[in-house]
Structure formats: C-alpha cells, structure tokens
C-alpha cells in the first residue's frame, strides 16, 4: 500500500510539474514576439473568415509561431474567438496577446479620401475611382439610385448631387462605395442643420442646396459668398435670369458625362434644365456639392442691391447695382486683355489668411 501511495504521489508531482512547465511555456509563447523586427505587416481579416483561418494566416506571415496553441488558448479563455473584419497594421515584434488585441479592436487601417468643396458627382466619382473604392460608373449609378436617394434624403430626387458633403473621409478597405456615400450624406445633414440654425426662408431645402451649389462654384473667396448669394436672391425676387456660367457647364456635363472645353456661345444659347441663361429661376437641381460656408450664405445672404458681378480674374469679383456699371466692369476686367494677363483664380490660394478675412 505504501508503495502505491508513493507511486501516486510521484505521478501527481510529475503532473504538477508538467502543468507548471506547460503553463510557463504557454505564458512565454503568449508574451514573446515571433520576431524582433519592428516591420509592420498589413494583415487582413476577411468577411466570413474562420478563426482557425485567421490564426493560420498569422502563422504563415510569421507573426506568431504556433497557430494551434493560440487557437486553443483563445477558445478556452474567452469562450470563443472574437475577431472583426478589417485590415490591420501589425508590428512583427508584437506578441500574440497584443496581436489578438489588434484584430479584436476593429480599428482597421484607414485611408484618407478628400472631396474638395464644389466638386460635382462626376468629379467625386473620379476621386472614388482613384482611391480604388469603386469604379466611376459604379459610383455614379449608386448616387443616381432612386431607392438609395430616397432612403438617405427622404425625398424623390434624380441624384445625390448637392448632398455629398465635401470633406476628408477616413475609409477602410471594407467601407465600400455605399458606406462612403452614407458618411457623406450624414455629414451633409449635420452641416445643413448647423447652417440653417435660427434661419427662416421661403425657399425649399432642395432650392437652397441648389443655390448653395451655384454660390460654391461662382467664388472661391470665402468673404464673397454672402454677396454672391445676395445677387442671386435679388435676381430671384425680380424674376431675372440668373445667367450663371457654372449651370451651363453642368448642363453639358450632365448630358455628356464630361467637360473638357471652354464655354461657347452655343452652350449659352442651348436650352436644358440647368442652363440659367435660357430661363428664369433656379436650375433643376444642384450643380455641385457645397461646403458649409456656401450653405450658410445661401440661407443668410448679405444685404445689398447688387444684381451683377464680374470676375477680376484673380478669384474675386466686382459687384454692380445696374447694367451700366456692370458693363464698365466687364470692359475693365474682361474686354481689356491686359487686365487678364498673368492673373488666375488660383491666386486666391496665395493670399495671406489675414488679408482674406479683412476684405
């Protein structure tokens, strides 16, 4: 009997020693990186991918040394592995515990996608295609999808033109074009609510967005937007044609899908639902996607009697109350070739911020 007890004690001791050794080995595995290199590896967890496939992928890329051990440990300690779809930046010198924290976090690698103020849906589609989020054709089809438009705006509209707020968006590989569109419309809604705060108007939401889109295209000088808005508001009250070139350009762009020429007399005279040289009032819909300042200017125009404005060729304008003064400004700044030489709207970007704010 004594010999049996001694044998049993030896077995228990050996098991205990083995358990301790196994535990220490497991802890060493969990806390020891597979490499000392600080190189960052982009590791992808795809939709529908099993946890077994995930840990095997980690092992095949040299991020961990034993997929089976990590799989079993995770299953027994967490009640089931939880990883989130994403594209993750994992340093090679991260240990298995740190790696699991990364791929459980859901903090996928983000890529900035910048949409400039005043871009129309065709230009936004080019940005989306360059960012490899979707093809230009796919994006345009989505922003013209009546079902999606109604879902996001609550209105029956031909497209989301005007409602894709210009900003820099951080997207992941799995955001997709619809995800980006939802983000853009959400940001529009936030800025629209802010721009309309404390404002009353007789114009509808779509009319105001349309007006803001024209204001955005007519000037890049922030201080001019309320004045540009006042001209259009004054013309609308008098039932005058808006006669704004950007609407002509958009009409051609919408019909052909491209704009790669200078505006012609034929363009000005050809009627379409956007050409404000051929009818009074606002065009059919927005011609660009306006930023906050243009939205605010559409709601809160400056108080003025101006009915005309003409470019000074460097991004700002001369404003006039009557046609005679306007014609003089046209002669001074447009007919006079010397007034145009060496000038560009891009000169606005060279202005000191303080100078722009003082105007």
What does this molecule look like?
A hairpin with a 5-residue loop joins β5 (308-311) and β6 (317-320). It is elongated, with a radius of gyration of 31 Å. The protein contains 15 helices and six strands. α9 packs across α13. It starts with a helix and ends with a helix. By secondary structure, it is mainly alpha-helical. The strands form three sheets. It has a two-stranded antiparallel ribbon. The longest helix has 30 residues, at 2-31. It has helices spanning 2-31, 51-60, 67-78, 96-105, 121-130, 136-143, 146-153, 176-195, 205-218, 225-237, 245-256, 265-269, 292-299, 323-335, 353-358, and strands at 40-45, 86-91, 111-114, 168-171, 308-311, 317-320.
């Amino acid at each position: 009997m004594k010999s049996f007890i001694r044998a049993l004690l030896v077995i228990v001791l050996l098991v205990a020693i083995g358990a301790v050794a196994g535990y220490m080995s497991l802890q060493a595995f969990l806390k020891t990186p597979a490499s000392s290199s600080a190189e960052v590896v982009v590791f992808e967890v795809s939709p529908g991918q099993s946890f077994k496939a995930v840990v095997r992928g980690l092992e095949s890329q040299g991020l961990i040394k034993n997929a089976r051990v990590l799989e079993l440990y995770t299953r027994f300690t967490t009640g089931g592995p939880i990883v989130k779809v994403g594209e993750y930046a994992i340093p090679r010198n991260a240990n298995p515990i740190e790696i699991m924290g990364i791929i459980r976090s859901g903090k996928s690698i983000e890529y900035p996608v910048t949409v400039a103020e005043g871009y129309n849906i065709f230009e936004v589609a080019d940005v989306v295609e360059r960012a490899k989020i979707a093809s230009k054709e796919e994006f345009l089809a989505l922003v013209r999808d009546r079902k999606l438009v109604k879902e996001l705006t609550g209105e029956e509209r031909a497209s989301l033109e005007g409602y894709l707020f210009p900003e820099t968006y951080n997207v992941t590989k799995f955001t997709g074009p619809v995800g980006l569109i939802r983000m853009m419309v959400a940001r529009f809604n936030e800025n629209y609510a802010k721009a309309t705060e404390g404002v009353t108007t007789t114009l509808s939401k779509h009319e105001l967005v349309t007006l803001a889109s024209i204001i955005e295209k007519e000037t890049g000088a922030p201080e001019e937007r309320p004045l540009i808005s006042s001209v259009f508001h004054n013309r609308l009250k008098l039932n005058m044609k808006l006669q704004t070139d950007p609407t002509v350009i958009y009409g051609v762009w919408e019909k052909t899908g491209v704009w790669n020429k200078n505006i012609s007399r034929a363009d000005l005279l050809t009627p379409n639902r956007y050409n404000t040289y051929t009818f009074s009032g606002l065009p059919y819909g927005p011609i660009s996607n306006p930023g906050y300042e243009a939205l605010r200017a559409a709601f809160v125009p400056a108080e003025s009697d101006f009915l005309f404005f003409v470019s000074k060729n460097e991004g700002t304008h001369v404003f006039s109350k009557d046609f005679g003064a306007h014609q003089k400004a046209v002669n001074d700044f447009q007919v006079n070739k010397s007034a145009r030489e060496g000038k560009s709207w891009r000169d606005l970007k060279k202005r000191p911020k303080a100078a722009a704010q003082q105007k």
